[in-house]
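Format notes (please read before filing issues)

Several people have asked whether sequences and structure tokens are stored in separate files. They are not. Every record keeps both together, in the order shown below: the sequence lines, then the token lines. Line labels are part of the format and must not be stripped during preprocessing.
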Amino acid sequence: MPHSRLSRLPQWVSRWLGYREKSPKEPSHVVYLWSFIGALCGLSILQAIFGQVQYFIDRKVPPILASYGASAVLCYGAIEAPLAQPRALIVGHFISAVSAVCITKLFDLLGPERFEELRWLAGSLSTAVAIVLMQLTKTTHPPAGATALLAAVDKDVCALSWYLLPVILLSSTVVLVTALLFNNIQRRFPVFWLEPAIPPIAERSQGLGGSDVEAKPTIQPEASRSSSLTLGQVS
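Then the structure lines:
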């Protein structure tokens, strides 16, 4: 495994941040078990926060955004996928929410009635813009497309306006923290934090089949050429 800065931390810390000297190979039943436990506990904690804490109830925050059900599939199940890593999870959801809020605010300038007529277009445009932004920032996280869509077409989510942004950040953080906890008991998460580690490529020795090595004509010594000529005359 390529060198990681996490290797400098104590083992009891680096383990829960996804660092291993050797990548573990888990049997299938272990993967299934921790995927189930992680998703069950992670989504339950998320709903407990937004559904039971009076602070969020007073602000009419939905108990959970449906897009995080899709994030659970990646962050607790397909944990080695690049789309499930922390950067994609946090930034993908956030920029999708920002783009959706901005676009719905622009559509809202047309008036309430006209906005209702064009809500479908606001949702489609929000999702399309979110996809491009995630591609540009290399933070593609498919469930984040649903975040952008919900922020435009779901009236309860749309009503949160700019308050949706801290809700998204908190939701993503809860999913990430619970994924770090449950996925690192017998598995490894994340595979990388910001960018995937690229192992160093050994330099190719010249003359071992490299395309940059030009074939040079073989020059026979003078004595060899004389011998060949003599033999030719004799024959």
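For reference, the curators noted about this record: The longest helix spans residues 28-52. Confidence is low (pLDDT under 50) at residues 223-235.
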